[in-house]
Amino acid sequence: MMENIKVCRKARHMNQQALADAMGVGRSTVAMWETGGSSPDREMILKLAAFFGVTTDYLLGYEKPSDAPSLPPTDDEIKFALFGGDGEITDAMYKEVQRFARMVKIREEYDRQLKAAQAKDPAEE
Questions:
Q1: Lowest CB count within 10 Å: 4, 20, 68, 105, which one?
Q2: For 22-64, how does the pLDDT look when each residue is reduced to its tens digit (9 = 90+)?
Q3: What are the pLDDT digits (tens) for 62-82?
Q4: Can you tell me the distance from the alpha carbon of 32 to that of 75, in angstroms, rounded to the nearest whole number?
């Protein structure tokens, strides 16, 4: 388990302190988890799995790494993929891309529903 917590943390480009802050524990607690000095309790395992977007089985070592679900991309990874790492990407620019993506998703859903309705009633064409 300890290795999987570290793998997940590093995949998110987080240091131990950032994970500790996110989990509401001290940095030394995260260090102990990662070195096997202690283990997170059941509630913390659930919290870690939800945070990293993996199963508890993966964190506990019951799934092989190849079986584990991939971690969701971080905002920084998404920004890099969208903008190619060119220059400084502001939060405003990123939020604008997120709004555009939501708008496209809404439009696609509307188009899908419209086509389904037209297929049921060809007289409306």
A1: 105
A2: 999 999 999 999 998 999 999 999 999 888 888 898 888 887 7
A3: 877 655 556 667 777 777 777
A4: 28
First to last CA, the chain: 59
Contact 99, 93 (CB under 8 A): no
Tokens of 66: 């190849």
CA-derived radius of gyration, the chain: 21
- Would you call 40 exposed, middle or buried from its count of C-beta atoms within 10 A (0-12, 13-18, 19+)? buried
What the block records as the tokens of 45 is 């395992």
When pLDDT is cut at 50, 70 and 90, the band that residue 101 belongs to is confident
The C-alpha atoms of residue 108 and residue 112 are separated, in whole angstroms, by 6
